[in-house]
């Protein structure tokens, strides 16, 4: 197995391995690269739906079907991310997956089925490094803060719809997933790194600050994740795979390909140790 770091802070390319026949020893090396580099990429990986699921279970228990996204017929734990003529992607936001859950996911494995000839890259940012770059005086203040993570971004989106009873679907899901209050700074359960655990899609407010103060602080911190020096940008090809640590990263889907056909399959792994909840 060949592991090539792609930047100083995040991302590595893994070569000379096939995930559908990976051995225990190879997986151990892969997993350590996943922890160290936060997101790892592999090319030319042929996986059936079952092989995709089997690989994901080596990282942990799997999340159930996503409440908003489409899923594969053969398994509802395989989320489909797709665009097609007349059905372009929706608005994109920097985000960490599903932080509106009490325990957000550990990681995701995204497998490209087919992609446009150009466009459609994904960008990841190392949120542990974003935290490390802050001055100590600011860190002391932020360690005391808590934030609310909510489903609000789905309301009125392409994934929302009016139900037969007149209620919006997103409102119904939000009743099952009320706002989660957690520390702004989280300790990664495996690496013990401090992580600035916020994202512009699901972090709604800072607890204890008025709306003006909260919005200003969050906007300032969200902007830190947009520093190209702390990012890795990946150009998809058919049969490429990305595996990212959801506990330490944010990502952004670049929607610059119009409604060109594009389909990726994602399997998401549940979080392990419980994050710090009040």
- Oligomeric organization of the protein chains: single chain
Helical content (DSSP H or I, runs of 4+): 10-25%
Extract low-pLDDT stretches.
273-278
Q: What is the end-to-end distance? A: 42 Å
Structural summary, described in words:
An 8-stranded mixed β-sheet has the order 1-2-3-14-6-16-5-4, covered by helices on one side. Strands 13-7-15 form a 3-stranded antiparallel β-sheet. The termini are far apart. The chain has helices at residues 24-37, 49-57, 127-132, 136-142, 169-176, 211-224; strands spanning 2-5, 12-15, 39-42, 71-72, 75-83, 107-114, 122-126, 146-149, 180-183, 185-187, 194-196, 203-206, 231-234, 241-245, 249-253, 262-269. The protein is α+β, with helices and mostly antiparallel strands. It has one domain: 4-Layer Sandwich (Double-stranded beta-helix), CATH 3.60.130.10. The radius of gyration is 18 Å and the shape is globular. The chain has 6 helices and 16 strands.
Write the layout of secondary structure elements.
Elements lengths: L1 E4 L6 E4 L8 H14 L1 E4 L6 H9 L13 E2 L2 E9 L23 E8 L7 E5 H6 L3 H7 L3 E4 L19 H8 L3 E4 L1 E3 L6 E3 L6 E4 L4 H14 L6 E4 L6 E5 L3 E5 L8 E8 L9
Parallel strand pairs: 2-3
Antiparallel strand pairs: 1-2, 3-14, 4-5, 5-16, 6-14, 6-16, 7-13, 7-15, 8-9, 8-12, 10-11
